[in-house]
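Quick one from the shared queue. A colleague (R.T.) flagged Bcr/CflA family efflux transporter as missing a structural entry in our internal table.

Convert sequence to structure tokens.
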Amino acid sequence: MTQSKTPFIVVLSLAMTMMLGPFSMDTYLPAFPIIGESLEVSQQAVSLSVSVYVFAMAFGQLIGGALSDRFGRQRVLMSGLAIFALSSIVIGMADSLNTLLWGRAVQALGAGFTLVSVPALVRDRVAGRDAAKLFSMMGFIMVLAPGIAPSVGSVILTLGSWHTIFFALAVYALLLVPLLVRVLFTGTGKVSRMKSPKMSLLARYKLVLSTKPALPFIVWQAASFSTLMMFITYASFIYQGHFGQSPSAFSMLFAANIVAMLIFNILNRILLSRLTSLRILQLATGCQGIGILLLVMAAFMEWPLYAFLPAMMLTIGSIGAISPNIQACFLEFFPTSGGTAAALLGAAQFGVAGLLSALSAMLPHTLEAVILAMAACGLVAYVMLARSIIKGRATAEAP
């Protein structure tokens, strides 16, 4: 099945499934003060639930990806949704910090099972440029989730307590079950995978890790995503702390990056009709490199906000084209182990980004330090870009 024949309802269903990740991470953020007061702990203690979630989701992807290659996408995806829904209900009834943290860990395992199945489902359906187009269409829908999730959480808080947010997440996960069964796993929506050899989990990961041409894309994705995670971690400090903007102005400034990602996503879909995924990936990473260079200049030369913002939009917006093309290029190497490959890519992305974000707490709390941390991540991605160009030229010149 080619991407041109992929119905929009399929794309929408896959995107709504992927939205479970950002929704479960961001929807409860406005409730942090209320949760802390309810559980009689500090907001800093409540924020531990974010770190727990990121690391547990990385682990869930590692397990779920290999299991989906062994037992099928539907079993693993539906199991993930069930685990997610049940743990969300437990969190919704939590009366202590320990229950919250353990509940978030189990919830993240379910999310990991669910989210890692989606790139594998795409790889089962299409490959190459068509896969990049499908990832890009999904990304166009999914990139809205981080922007609207906190607002959704705020609306839910006006209707009930913080517990209601997690009950709503449980309902969302349960509603996905009949949708996915109807759209993806029955009738014309069902797609047969290439037969996957019976292997242990460790053997599957050994197979993926032994495919050396694919490994640079893991580093590339982890570096680019870490740049985004670093920005998200310090966005409030950058705009409200350093530039002194109000909460309402901060929301608009943060949303500007979402708009930039959408623009890059649209450009990516247009360019895929003319260029390969790798070429667009190289161009987008080059744009991110230019954006980071401008950010460094802005930080150390004390540029005003109106000059700083476009540089940040270029840096973050380019990820809208980087991510879908990395996924397409990487998964192209694994026609029968798409789940395991997607798991390794996702786990590296969240694991590395979560670790670097946590370690960045030891840096000086200044704009220059934050930008240099982002620049370090961007530099690694730029090295991967240079490596791919050099390798491409060597291949072209080979007799």
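The mean pLDDT is 84.
The domain at 1-188 is CATH 1.20.1250.20 (Growth Hormone; Chain: A;).
Added to the table.
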